[in-house]
Design brief:
The chain has five helices and no strands. With about 120 residues, the protein is an all-alpha fold. Helix 2 runs antiparallel to helix 3.
């Protein structure tokens, strides 16, 4: 029985280390990217995957009991709420961006081509 507990502990520790590694990569992305939507994407995806991996590691370590059920519900809540809140923040940024011409290109479905932004026109 002791061997099974060690295997379970090592598997849980691997998931915890993977989650912590994802958090480190997320922090690097948040500080490295310049534009707010890129930073937010790194933070949202890193949180969802990192917290999920850490919680799976904790579930493996503690075994299947009521605590594991609560951890699964936390994973479910975070998987539903983090992408939703990130999407709403991104929509707010896009609609209130005063310098949208610097960040986006306008596409038209009728012509099938991408119009040049003001920034691209100035560079030429």
């Amino acid at each position: 029985m002791a061997v099974w507990e060690w295997i379970r502990f090592l598997a849980g520790a691997v998931f915890l280390l993977i989650g912590m590694g994802i958090f480190v990569i997320e922090m690097i992305g948040v500080f490295r990217f310049r534009y707010v939507l890129n930073r937010m994407h790194a933070a949202a995806m890193g949180d969802t995957l990192g917290i999920g991996s850490c919680m799976v590691g904790l579930i493996i370590i503690c075994g299947w009991n009521f605590t594991a059920l609560k951890l699964l519900l936390i994973i479910l809540f975070l998987w539903l709420s983090s992408p939703t809140s990130s999407h709403l923040i991104a929509r707010l940024e896009v609609t209130t961006d005063e310098d949208a011409w610097m960040h986006y290109r306008k596409t038209t479905l009728q012509d099938g081509h991408v119009e040049e932004s003001e920034k691209e026109r100035r560079q030429q």
